[in-house]
Structures are given as C-alpha cells and as structure tokens.
Specification:
globular; cell membrane; 530 residues; TIM Barrel; 2 domains; 6-stranded antiparallel β-sheet; 19 strands; Beta-Lactamase; transmembrane helix
C-alpha cells in the first residue's frame, strides 16, 4: 500500500500538469485563432483600400500627363488625343474639362453625359491630402462611378471618371462569402461600390473592420457575421493544443540546457565572424526570350553541420538587433568576389541586393558601397540596390537625396514589393528610382483575378510614365509569364527558371544557357548555309 502512494502522487501531479497545460493550450489556441482571424480581415480591408488608392493614383497620373501635354482644352484635336489616352487605359471611362466650380465644359465622350443622374458642385467634392485633387461620386444609370478632379491653374480642372469594378471587392475567402460584405465609400458616406449579400439576406450579428486612406477621402468597410467566425480557420486549434502539451514536456529539457545557451543574437554574431551567411543567386530573366539578364542575391545561413537556415528564421532578428548592416556588406562582398568574372565579361549583367530603409539612410552608406564595388573592380551601373516598400521610409526627402546621389555615381535603385507596402505611387515617383518590382502577391493571382491584371497594367503604365522599368517576382508558371507579357512586363524572376541557387549551381545554370544559345546559333547558321 505504501509503495503505491508515490505512484499515485506522481500520477496526480502528471494529471494536474496535463490539465494546466491543456487549459493554457485552450486559451492560447482560442486567442491565436481569434488574432489570426482579426489580422486576416484587417489585411483584406487593407487590400481593398490599397487597390482603390492605386486606381486613384492611376487616374491622377493620367490627368497630370494630359495637362503636361497641353491637352486641357475643348479643341477637337485635344479631345481626340484624350480619347486615345482613355482607350489605352481601361480603368478610366471618360475625361472631362470643367470650370473651377466643377461645372462641365466638355467631355472626351460627350455621350457619357447622358448617363449621369446628376453632377455635384465643387463645394460637395472632398479634398485629398493634395489640395488640388478632389474626389466625388458620379451617380450614373447602371452604377455609380468615381470622379477624380485635378486643378489645372485657377480657372479650370480636368476630371477622370473611374468605373468601379466589382472584382475590386471580390476578395472574401470562400467560407465568408455568404456571411459578409465589402463596401468602398467616400468619407462623407457616399457609396462607390460593394460586394454584398443577396438582397433577401442580412447580417444579424455583424462585426465591422474599417480602414480609411491617409491620402484620399476613401474608406473601406468589411462587415462579417460573428457566427461564422466560430468555425472559420479553426483547424489550428488541435495543432496548437498539441504544441502546448509538447512545450510542457520540453520545458524541463530546455531549462536544463538554458545555462549553456547564450541566445540567438550571440549565434548571429558567431555566424558573422565565421562567414556562415552566404549569398544565393536567383536569375532575373527576359520574359520573352528567357535570357538571364542578371540576378538578385538572397541570404542563406550555412551552419557548420551543413544545414541551411532559410532567411525568415534569421533576417527579422538581424534587423531588430542591428546586425543586418554587417550581414548585407558581408553578402555583397562575397557576391562581388564570386560574380566578378561574369560582371567583367558581360557589362549588361546586373547584380541586385536588398537594403532595409534604415541602412540606406544611415551615415556612410553611399561611401561604403562605392568603396566595396570599386575594390571588386566592377562597374557601378551593374549594381542595383533594392529598397523594400514593406518598411516605410520615414524621411522621403532624405531618401530621395540618397537615391539621387547613388544614381549620380551610376548605381541603379529598385523599389521592392511594390503594391503591398506603404508608399503611394506618387511617393515612388518622388523617390526617383529606376525600377519597380511587382510583388509575388500579384503574380500569384494574375491568372485568376481580373482586378489583379488591371492593377499590374496600371503599374506598368505608370512605370512607363515615370521612365522606370518593371520586374515581376515569384513567377512559377508559363501561364503567369503570358499574362505578365500581355500587361507589358519585360523581366521577371522566380522558380519557373530557378530557385535561389548557391554560386556553383548558378554557374552551372549560366553555362547551360550559354551552351543552349551556342547550339541554337549553330543550328541557325546551318540552316542559312543550306
């Protein structure tokens, strides 16, 4: 009997521990699922708002282009040129010349005036952050449109009429489509477009997610029935419970080893000292010919035991701990050493590398970059610095000055992750970069979502207006290539050609392409001789 008591006590402690971890796991799982749902719905709201801002950016750039070409008149030649401009930009339905009070003088397509239910005075228009830009609803038979007014001098203005495409709002996951609605409106409450429930249905217990633009008088509301949230994305519950129990078991093991662990930041420092961070090379290729025009270097951590650590497992810590700058210079130095023969042999070959905004704005960045590239005896015009749009540039004036200095020395600058980050397209123009890189998010959906195609077309058109080139990221299928080429994108990168490769693998890829090109040239020569 006495021997069984310790066993019973141990069993009781184990059961108590399991109950405690189960309770903690339940709380953690429930909280995790709730936070994940809230985050995803906020992100969907951001997506609709960002798409709407892109549409207004596109209209604004079109109006600026027309005004810059002196076409803000009702002369027949001007109206003909405006009609051609509208024809080339499917998002814009009409362009009208108006008086300073907003009254219409003439229209590129005068017949569209018959579809207006009414026309607002300037006093009823809403100002943007740019005081010369106004937005208002255009009530039309068959659906409302968005009016974008740009002042041209003191006495007249140009107005672009933007059609509100319902596909802009069709972003709801399948599980929520019958239990939610998406609304785009002006800040005065005027509705511009929506994706809503069927007319005979209504949301009984709704929760709202709202986001307002900081640049335009626009706001987006996503409304979801609370009842559906109890089952949506709940598959994470049991895995989270399992993890919670496993953590309880591992706690003791980790605690016993805690004294021997110096922490992840110390691991980064040791890896930097040992040179364990290595550049991997992903080709940037011509979408039509598949010729490799350059490459982007991406960080990988090669541990002493031969394992490769992906960037998502160490880049955020490197950024937060201030090690990212030293890591960037180490990777660039190694990449320049590896690729110097290729860069010397092909003066059109470009090498791209990523820089966080804090680094490019830091003291001595331009000087260090120049000395690093000069030491490798490589031309500055073959080096492209990619600044991600996901992290906001706090000082755009300073950033534009640094970009201008880099370009003066011959370097090229690209804005990465365009379309999903912080900057509006007007800020991209103000930065003065050479290239924009369309984020993988748009490439993934370009063959399935008509609104994505419209956005990519707008980005390409604006890049052309800003004298910038375009590169698409994350290309995986031939179908995506065809869609991007039809939108006017010239270059891309992605797993369709190659994943990021170690230097030896990249050399093999380049050699195989040269061999294929030589065989093709010989075959063409033989045909000519015959």
């Amino acid at each position: 009997m006495k021997a069984t008591r310790p066993r019973l006590s141990m069993a009781a402690l184990v059961l108590a521990g399991m109950a405690a971890f189960a309770l903690a796991g339940h709380i953690a799982a429930t909280r995790f699922i709730h936070d994940q749902q809230m985050r995803q719905l906020h992100e969907l709201t951001e997506v609709v708002l960002h798409r709407s801002e892109l549409a207004v950016d596109f209209a604004t750039a079109s109006l600026d282009d027309l005004a810059g070409r002196g076409l803000a008149t009702c002369a027949p030649a001007s109206l003909q040129a405006i009609r051609l401009h509208v024809y080339q930009r499917s998002a814009v339905k009409d362009v009208r010349l108006v008086n300073s009070d907003g009254s219409v003088i003439c229209s590129a397509y005068s017949e569209t005036l018959e579809f207006d239910k009414g026309w607002v005075d300037r006093a009823d228009m809403l100002a943007s952050r740019d005081s010369k830009l106004m937005l208002f609803r255009v009530e039309q038979f068959g659906g409302d449109a968005l009016g974008v007014l740009r002042d041209i001098g003191d006495k007249k203005a140009l107005v672009a009429i933007l059609g509100i495409n319902s596909s802009l709002f069709d972003i709801m996951p399948a599980e929520l489509r019958a239990h939610g609605e998406v609304l785009l409106a002006l800040k005065n409450g005027a509705r511009l477009g929506e994706f809503a429930l069927e007319a005979d249905k209504a949301l009984t217990h709704a929760i709202d997610f709202e986001k307002s633009s900081t640049r335009y008088p626009l706001r987006v509301i996503i409304r979801i029935d609370k009842s559906v949230l109890s089952t949506w994305n709940s598959q994470a519950y049991w895995p989270t419970m399992t993890v919670a129990l496993a953590l309880g078991v591992l706690f003791g093991i980790l605690l016993s080893r805690a004294r021997r662990m110096e922490g992840p930041v110390a691991d980064l420092d040791r890896a930097l000292t040992r040179g364990e961070f290595r550049p991997y090379f992903q080709p940037i290729f011509d979408l039509r010919t598949r010729e490799i025009r350059g490459c982007e270097i991406l960080a990988r951590w090669l541990r002493e035991d031969g394992t490769v650590v992906p960037p998502m497992n160490f880049i955020p810590l490197a950024e937060s701990s201030g090690r990212i700058e030293a890591m960037t210079w180490q990777l660039l130095h190694q990449a320049l050493t590896d690729l110097q023969p290729q860069l010397k042999a092909d003066k059109d070959f470009k090498l791209s590398f990523n820089v966080v905004p804090r680094h490019i704005l830091g003291a001595g960045f331009v000087e260090t970059l120049r000395s690093t590239v000069a030491a490798a005896r490589v031309s500055a015009r073959q080096i492209m610095i990619e600044v991600t749009e996901r992290d906001e540039l706090d000082d755009l004036t300073r950033a534009a000055a640094v970009v201008g200095e880099l370009r003066d020395y011959g370097f090229r600058v690209a804005i990465d992750d365009v379309g999903v980050g912080h900057s509006g397209l007007s800020r991209l123009k103000g930065l003065g970069a050479n290239t924009i890189k369309i984020d993988k998010f748009f490439v993934d959906t370009i063959t399935a979502d008509a609104s994505t195609t419209t956005i990519v077309e707008m980005l390409v058109a604006l890049a052309r207006d800003f004298h910038m080139t375009v590169v698409a990221e994350g290309i995986e299928t031939e179908e995506q290539v065809r869609a991007l080429v039809s939108c006017g994108v010239g270059e891309g990168q992605g797993y369709l050609v190659a994943a990021p490769l170690p230097f030896a693998g990249f050399c093999e890829l380049m050699a195989s392409q040269r061999t294929a090109a030589a065989i093709s040239a010989q075959a063409a020569g033989a045909v000519l001789v015959a």
